[in-house]
Protein backbone atom coordinates (compact mmCIF):
# COMPACT_ATOMS: atom_id res chain seq x y z
CA UNK A 1 0.00 0.00 0.00
CA UNK A 2 2.79 2.43 0.87
CA UNK A 3 4.57 1.68 -2.40
CA UNK A 4 1.39 2.38 -4.39
CA UNK A 5 0.85 5.68 -2.56
CA UNK A 6 4.46 6.59 -3.23
CA UNK A 7 3.95 5.94 -6.95
CA UNK A 8 0.88 8.18 -6.90
CA UNK A 9 2.88 10.93 -5.25
CA UNK A 10 5.64 10.51 -7.83
CA UNK A 11 3.11 10.81 -10.67
CA UNK A 12 1.88 14.12 -9.26
CA UNK A 13 5.31 15.67 -8.89
CA UNK A 14 6.82 17.70 -11.69
CA UNK A 15 10.47 17.41 -12.77
CA UNK A 16 12.78 19.95 -11.15
CA UNK A 17 14.25 22.70 -13.36
CA UNK A 18 17.96 22.65 -14.10
CA UNK A 19 20.11 25.68 -13.35
CA UNK A 20 23.55 26.02 -14.90
CA UNK A 21 26.40 28.53 -14.95
CA UNK A 22 29.11 28.61 -17.61
CA UNK A 23 32.18 30.86 -17.55
CA UNK A 24 34.18 30.92 -20.81
CA UNK A 25 37.06 32.85 -22.38
CA UNK A 26 39.21 32.53 -19.27
CA UNK A 27 42.82 33.29 -20.17
CA UNK A 28 45.39 30.58 -19.51
CA UNK A 29 48.54 32.62 -20.37
CA UNK A 30 48.55 34.80 -17.27
CA UNK A 31 47.28 37.97 -19.04
CA UNK A 32 45.23 40.09 -16.64
CA UNK A 33 41.51 39.73 -17.32
CA UNK A 34 40.48 43.06 -15.77
CA UNK A 35 38.53 45.59 -17.86
CA UNK A 36 37.69 49.28 -17.61
CA UNK A 37 34.84 48.24 -15.36
CA UNK A 38 37.20 46.75 -12.81
CA UNK A 39 38.84 43.48 -11.86
CA UNK A 40 36.07 41.82 -9.90
CA UNK A 41 34.77 38.47 -11.04
CA UNK A 42 31.69 40.09 -12.62
CA UNK A 43 33.75 42.78 -14.45
CA UNK A 44 36.49 40.65 -15.97
CA UNK A 45 36.49 39.88 -19.67
CA UNK A 46 34.85 36.52 -19.19
CA UNK A 47 31.88 35.23 -21.15
CA UNK A 48 29.49 34.28 -18.31
CA UNK A 49 26.26 32.43 -19.07
CA UNK A 50 23.53 31.53 -16.59
CA UNK A 51 20.83 29.17 -17.88
CA UNK A 52 17.58 27.69 -16.59
CA UNK A 53 16.06 24.61 -18.25
CA UNK A 54 12.74 22.87 -17.64
CA UNK A 55 11.60 19.51 -18.97
CA UNK A 56 8.01 19.57 -20.28
CA UNK A 57 6.33 16.17 -20.28
CA UNK A 58 4.07 16.01 -23.31
CA UNK A 59 0.72 14.14 -23.21
CA UNK A 60 1.73 11.70 -20.45
CA UNK A 61 1.15 13.13 -16.99
CA UNK A 62 -2.58 12.38 -16.97
CA UNK A 63 -1.96 8.76 -17.89
CA UNK A 64 0.78 8.47 -15.27
CA UNK A 65 -1.60 9.69 -12.58
CA UNK A 66 -4.36 7.41 -13.84
CA UNK A 67 -2.09 4.36 -13.71
CA UNK A 68 -0.84 5.28 -10.24
CA UNK A 69 -4.41 5.74 -8.94
CA UNK A 70 -5.34 2.31 -10.33
CA UNK A 71 -2.33 0.90 -8.49
CA UNK A 72 -3.50 2.49 -5.23
CA UNK A 73 -6.99 1.10 -5.75
CA UNK A 74 -5.57 -2.38 -6.39
CA UNK A 75 -3.41 -2.16 -3.24
CA UNK A 76 -6.40 -1.09 -1.12
CA UNK A 77 -8.50 -3.98 -2.43
CA UNK A 78 -5.65 -6.46 -1.87
CA UNK A 79 -5.45 -5.25 1.72
CA UNK A 80 -9.21 -5.76 2.10
CA UNK A 81 -8.85 -9.28 0.72
CA UNK A 82 -6.03 -9.99 3.16
CA UNK A 83 -8.30 -8.79 5.97
CA UNK A 84 -11.07 -11.09 4.68
CA UNK A 85 -8.77 -14.11 4.74
CA UNK A 86 -7.34 -13.13 8.14
CA UNK A 87 -10.82 -12.79 9.63
CA UNK A 88 -11.73 -16.17 8.20
CA UNK A 89 -8.60 -17.74 9.72
CA UNK A 90 -9.24 -16.09 13.11
CA UNK A 91 -12.82 -17.37 13.21
CA UNK A 92 -11.73 -20.86 12.22
CA UNK A 93 -9.11 -20.96 14.98
CA UNK A 94 -11.67 -19.58 17.43
CA UNK A 95 -14.09 -22.38 16.48
CA UNK A 96 -11.31 -24.95 16.86
CA UNK A 97 -10.51 -23.65 20.35
CA UNK A 98 -14.19 -23.73 21.34
CA UNK A 99 -14.57 -27.27 19.98
CA UNK A 100 -11.52 -28.55 21.84
CA UNK A 101 -12.71 -26.90 25.05
CA UNK A 102 -16.23 -28.35 24.76
CA UNK A 103 -14.90 -31.81 23.87
CA UNK A 104 -12.70 -31.67 26.96
CA UNK A 105 -15.78 -30.85 29.05
CA UNK A 106 -17.63 -33.84 27.55
CA UNK A 107 -14.78 -36.14 28.55
CA UNK A 108 -14.59 -34.59 32.02
CA UNK A 109 -18.29 -35.24 32.52
CA UNK A 110 -17.82 -38.82 31.34
CA UNK A 111 -14.87 -39.31 33.67
CA UNK A 112 -16.91 -37.92 36.57
CA UNK A 113 -19.73 -40.33 35.76
CA UNK A 114 -17.29 -43.23 35.55
CA UNK A 115 -15.78 -42.25 38.90
CA UNK A 116 -19.25 -42.24 40.40
CA UNK A 117 -19.91 -45.69 38.96
CA UNK A 118 -16.55 -46.85 40.32
CA UNK A 119 -17.47 -45.62 43.81
CA UNK A 120 -20.77 -47.47 43.61
CA UNK A 121 -18.86 -50.53 42.41
CA UNK A 122 -16.60 -50.33 45.48
CA UNK A 123 -19.62 -50.63 47.77
CA UNK A 124 -21.04 -53.45 45.70
CA UNK A 125 -17.65 -55.18 45.84
CA UNK A 126 -17.72 -55.05 49.64
CA UNK A 127 -21.23 -56.43 49.59
CA UNK A 128 -20.14 -59.26 47.29
CA UNK A 129 -22.38 -58.11 44.38
CA UNK A 130 -19.51 -57.22 42.04
CA UNK A 131 -16.19 -58.71 41.07
CA UNK A 132 -12.91 -56.89 41.52
CA UNK A 133 -12.25 -57.03 37.75
CA UNK A 134 -15.48 -55.13 37.06
CA UNK A 135 -14.46 -52.41 39.50
CA UNK A 136 -11.02 -52.24 37.87
CA UNK A 137 -12.59 -51.85 34.43
CA UNK A 138 -14.69 -48.91 35.67
CA UNK A 139 -11.63 -47.26 37.18
CA UNK A 140 -9.68 -47.81 33.94
CA UNK A 141 -12.51 -46.27 31.91
CA UNK A 142 -12.58 -43.24 34.21
CA UNK A 143 -8.81 -42.91 33.98
CA UNK A 144 -8.94 -43.06 30.18
CA UNK A 145 -11.57 -40.34 30.03
CA UNK A 146 -9.53 -38.16 32.37
CA UNK A 147 -6.42 -38.58 30.20
CA UNK A 148 -8.43 -37.85 27.06
CA UNK A 149 -9.86 -34.71 28.65
CA UNK A 150 -6.36 -33.50 29.52
CA UNK A 151 -5.30 -34.08 25.93
CA UNK A 152 -8.29 -32.07 24.69
CA UNK A 153 -7.47 -29.25 27.11
CA UNK A 154 -3.96 -29.13 25.68
CA UNK A 155 -5.41 -29.05 22.16
CA UNK A 156 -7.70 -26.19 23.18
CA UNK A 157 -4.78 -24.23 24.62
CA UNK A 158 -2.79 -24.82 21.43
CA UNK A 159 -5.71 -23.53 19.36
CA UNK A 160 -5.92 -20.44 21.58
CA UNK A 161 -2.19 -19.85 21.10
CA UNK A 162 -2.71 -19.96 17.32
CA UNK A 163 -5.59 -17.53 17.73
CA UNK A 164 -3.49 -15.16 19.82
CA UNK A 165 -0.76 -15.24 17.17
CA UNK A 166 -3.25 -14.27 14.47
CA UNK A 167 -4.57 -11.46 16.69
CA UNK A 168 -1.06 -10.09 17.15
CA UNK A 169 -0.68 -10.93 20.84
CA UNK A 170 2.96 -10.13 21.71
CA UNK A 171 3.23 -12.95 24.25
CA UNK A 172 0.84 -15.77 23.28
CA UNK A 173 0.34 -18.19 26.16
CA UNK A 174 -3.06 -19.76 25.47
CA UNK A 175 -4.73 -18.08 28.46
CA UNK A 176 -7.17 -15.87 26.56
CA UNK A 177 -10.74 -16.40 27.75
CA UNK A 178 -13.24 -17.44 25.07
CA UNK A 179 -16.37 -15.39 25.61
CA UNK A 180 -18.59 -17.05 22.99
CA UNK A 181 -20.00 -20.57 23.15
CA UNK A 182 -19.74 -22.88 20.19
CA UNK A 183 -23.52 -22.92 19.82
CA UNK A 184 -23.66 -19.12 19.69
CA UNK A 185 -20.91 -19.04 17.10
CA UNK A 186 -22.61 -21.74 15.04
CA UNK A 187 -25.95 -19.89 15.09
CA UNK A 188 -24.43 -16.47 14.36
CA UNK A 189 -24.55 -17.09 10.60
CA UNK A 190 -27.37 -15.43 8.64
CA UNK A 191 -30.44 -17.72 8.46
CA UNK A 192 -30.64 -17.37 4.66
CA UNK A 193 -26.93 -17.97 4.12
CA UNK A 194 -27.37 -20.61 1.41
CA UNK A 195 -29.48 -18.23 -0.71
CA UNK A 196 -27.40 -15.06 -0.28
CA UNK A 197 -26.22 -13.83 -3.70
CA UNK A 198 -22.54 -13.61 -4.50
CA UNK A 199 -20.90 -10.21 -4.05
CA UNK A 200 -17.85 -9.03 -5.97
CA UNK A 201 -14.99 -10.11 -3.75
CA UNK A 202 -12.03 -7.83 -3.01
CA UNK A 203 -9.59 -10.16 -4.80
CA UNK A 204 -11.68 -9.97 -7.99
CA UNK A 205 -11.96 -6.18 -7.69
CA UNK A 206 -8.20 -5.98 -7.14
CA UNK A 207 -7.60 -8.04 -10.29
CA UNK A 208 -9.90 -5.65 -12.19
CA UNK A 209 -7.93 -2.67 -10.89
CA UNK A 210 -4.64 -4.30 -11.93
CA UNK A 211 -6.09 -4.84 -15.41
CA UNK A 212 -7.15 -1.18 -15.59
CA UNK A 213 -3.64 -0.16 -14.58
CA UNK A 214 -2.07 -2.43 -17.20
CA UNK A 215 -4.34 -1.03 -19.94
CA UNK A 216 -3.38 2.49 -18.94
CA UNK A 217 0.28 1.50 -19.02
CA UNK A 218 -0.12 0.23 -22.59
CA UNK A 219 -1.53 3.59 -23.66
CA UNK A 220 1.19 5.36 -21.70
CA UNK A 221 3.96 3.40 -23.42
CA UNK A 222 2.51 4.34 -26.80
CA UNK A 223 2.53 7.97 -25.67
CA UNK A 224 6.18 7.62 -24.67
CA UNK A 225 6.96 7.73 -28.39
CA UNK A 226 6.13 11.44 -28.27
CA UNK A 227 9.37 13.25 -27.34
CA UNK A 228 9.42 15.40 -24.21
CA UNK A 229 10.59 18.97 -24.76
CA UNK A 230 13.15 20.79 -22.68
CA UNK A 231 12.84 24.60 -22.83
CA UNK A 232 15.75 26.81 -21.80
CA UNK A 233 16.26 30.43 -20.83
CA UNK A 234 19.76 31.89 -20.56
CA UNK A 235 21.38 35.17 -19.65
CA UNK A 236 24.82 36.02 -21.04
CA UNK A 237 27.23 38.68 -19.74
CA UNK A 238 30.37 39.63 -21.70
CA UNK A 239 31.98 42.85 -20.37
CA UNK A 240 33.03 45.45 -20.91
CA UNK A 241 31.59 46.69 -24.20
CA UNK A 242 29.29 43.95 -25.44
CA UNK A 243 25.65 44.19 -24.46
CA UNK A 244 24.32 41.61 -22.04
CA UNK A 245 21.92 39.27 -23.82
CA UNK A 246 19.23 36.73 -23.11
CA UNK A 247 18.44 33.66 -25.11
CA UNK A 248 15.67 31.13 -25.49
CA UNK A 249 15.81 27.61 -26.78
CA UNK A 250 14.39 24.12 -26.66
CA UNK A 251 15.62 20.60 -27.20
CA UNK A 252 14.03 17.21 -27.67
CA UNK A 253 15.24 13.69 -28.43
CA UNK A 254 14.80 12.56 -32.03
CA UNK A 255 12.89 9.25 -32.22
CA UNK A 256 15.13 7.75 -34.86
CA UNK A 257 16.54 4.56 -33.34
CA UNK A 258 14.35 3.89 -30.33
CA UNK A 259 10.58 3.80 -30.90
CA UNK A 260 9.80 2.39 -27.43
CA UNK A 261 8.87 -0.93 -29.02
CA UNK A 262 10.25 -3.10 -26.23
CA UNK A 263 8.37 -1.21 -23.51
CA UNK A 264 5.14 -1.42 -25.51
CA UNK A 265 5.53 -5.18 -25.92
CA UNK A 266 6.23 -5.56 -22.19
CA UNK A 267 3.12 -3.50 -21.35
CA UNK A 268 1.00 -5.64 -23.69
CA UNK A 269 2.36 -8.79 -22.06
CA UNK A 270 1.51 -7.39 -18.61
CA UNK A 271 -2.01 -6.59 -19.80
CA UNK A 272 -2.47 -10.13 -21.13
CA UNK A 273 -1.24 -11.53 -17.82
CA UNK A 274 -3.62 -9.24 -15.91
CA UNK A 275 -6.55 -10.42 -18.06
CA UNK A 276 -5.65 -14.05 -17.34
CA UNK A 277 -5.34 -13.30 -13.61
CA UNK A 278 -8.77 -11.64 -13.61
CA UNK A 279 -10.33 -14.68 -15.30
CA UNK A 280 -8.57 -16.93 -12.79
CA UNK A 281 -9.82 -14.83 -9.86
CA UNK A 282 -13.41 -14.97 -11.11
CA UNK A 283 -13.25 -18.73 -11.66
CA UNK A 284 -11.66 -19.23 -8.24
CA UNK A 285 -14.36 -17.13 -6.58
CA UNK A 286 -17.12 -19.17 -8.25
CA UNK A 287 -15.38 -22.43 -7.31
CA UNK A 288 -14.96 -21.26 -3.70
CA UNK A 289 -18.65 -20.42 -3.47
CA UNK A 290 -19.77 -23.73 -4.98
CA UNK A 291 -17.57 -25.86 -2.71
CA UNK A 292 -18.39 -23.73 0.35
CA UNK A 293 -22.14 -24.11 -0.25
CA UNK A 294 -21.79 -27.91 -0.39
CA UNK A 295 -19.63 -28.01 2.75
CA UNK A 296 -21.98 -25.70 4.67
CA UNK A 297 -25.08 -27.68 3.72
CA UNK A 298 -23.45 -30.95 4.81
CA UNK A 299 -22.00 -29.56 8.06
CA UNK A 300 -25.15 -27.73 9.12
CA UNK A 301 -27.32 -30.78 8.40
CA UNK A 302 -24.90 -33.04 10.29
CA UNK A 303 -24.88 -30.68 13.29
CA UNK A 304 -28.70 -30.55 13.25
CA UNK A 305 -29.02 -34.34 13.26
CA UNK A 306 -26.56 -34.71 16.13
CA UNK A 307 -28.33 -31.96 18.05
CA UNK A 308 -31.94 -33.07 17.47
CA UNK A 309 -31.72 -36.84 16.95
CA UNK A 310 -28.51 -38.68 17.74
CA UNK A 311 -27.60 -36.75 20.89
CA UNK A 312 -30.94 -37.17 22.72
CA UNK A 313 -31.25 -40.83 21.67
CA UNK A 314 -27.74 -41.63 22.87
CA UNK A 315 -28.31 -39.86 26.20
CA UNK A 316 -31.58 -41.75 26.80
CA UNK A 317 -30.00 -45.08 25.87
CA UNK A 318 -27.06 -44.50 28.22
CA UNK A 319 -29.35 -43.57 31.09
CA UNK A 320 -31.40 -46.75 30.52
CA UNK A 321 -28.32 -48.97 30.50
CA UNK A 322 -26.90 -47.26 33.60
CA UNK A 323 -30.21 -47.73 35.45
CA UNK A 324 -30.39 -51.36 34.37
CA UNK A 325 -26.80 -51.92 35.47
CA UNK A 326 -27.52 -50.40 38.88
CA UNK A 327 -30.39 -52.88 39.29
CA UNK A 328 -28.39 -55.82 38.02
CA UNK A 329 -30.25 -56.00 34.71
CA UNK A 330 -27.26 -55.12 32.50
CA UNK A 331 -23.67 -56.24 32.42
CA UNK A 332 -20.63 -54.05 32.89
CA UNK A 333 -19.76 -54.59 29.24
CA UNK A 334 -23.13 -53.13 28.25
CA UNK A 335 -22.57 -50.10 30.48
CA UNK A 336 -19.06 -49.40 29.19
CA UNK A 337 -20.17 -49.82 25.59
CA UNK A 338 -23.05 -47.41 26.13
CA UNK A 339 -20.75 -44.88 27.78
CA UNK A 340 -18.20 -45.13 24.94
CA UNK A 341 -20.92 -44.69 22.34
CA UNK A 342 -22.39 -41.70 24.16
CA UNK A 343 -18.95 -40.11 24.50
CA UNK A 344 -18.35 -40.60 20.79
CA UNK A 345 -21.74 -39.11 19.93
CA UNK A 346 -21.25 -36.09 22.19
CA UNK A 347 -17.69 -35.42 20.98
CA UNK A 348 -18.85 -35.82 17.38
CA UNK A 349 -21.75 -33.45 18.04
CA UNK A 350 -19.33 -30.80 19.29
CA UNK A 351 -17.15 -31.31 16.22
CA UNK A 352 -20.21 -31.05 13.98
CA UNK A 353 -21.14 -27.71 15.57
CA UNK A 354 -17.58 -26.50 15.03
CA UNK A 355 -17.59 -27.71 11.43
CA UNK A 356 -20.91 -25.95 10.86
CA UNK A 357 -19.55 -22.68 12.26
CA UNK A 358 -16.36 -22.93 10.18
CA UNK A 359 -18.34 -23.80 7.06
CA UNK A 360 -20.62 -20.81 7.62
CA UNK A 361 -17.63 -18.49 7.93
CA UNK A 362 -15.98 -20.04 4.87
CA UNK A 363 -19.15 -19.57 2.83
CA UNK A 364 -19.53 -15.94 3.92
CA UNK A 365 -15.89 -15.32 3.02
CA UNK A 366 -16.36 -17.00 -0.38
CA UNK A 367 -19.45 -14.87 -1.00
CA UNK A 368 -17.51 -11.73 -0.12
CA UNK A 369 -19.89 -10.97 2.74
CA UNK A 370 -17.81 -11.78 5.81
CA UNK A 371 -18.04 -8.87 8.23
CA UNK A 372 -16.12 -8.05 11.38
CA UNK A 373 -17.84 -9.75 14.33
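^ C-alpha coordinates above, recovered residues below v
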Amino acid sequence: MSAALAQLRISREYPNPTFGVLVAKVSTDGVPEGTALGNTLADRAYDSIASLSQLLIVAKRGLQRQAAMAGVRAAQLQREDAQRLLLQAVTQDYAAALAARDQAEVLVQSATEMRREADIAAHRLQAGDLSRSDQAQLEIAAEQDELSSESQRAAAQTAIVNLEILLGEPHPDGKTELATTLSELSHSAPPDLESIPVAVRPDVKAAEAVLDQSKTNVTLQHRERIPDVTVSLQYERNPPYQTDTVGFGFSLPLPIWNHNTGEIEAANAARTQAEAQLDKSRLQANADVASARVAYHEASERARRYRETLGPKSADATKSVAYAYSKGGASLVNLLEAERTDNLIRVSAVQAEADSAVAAVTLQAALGRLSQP
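The longest helix spans residues 61-126.
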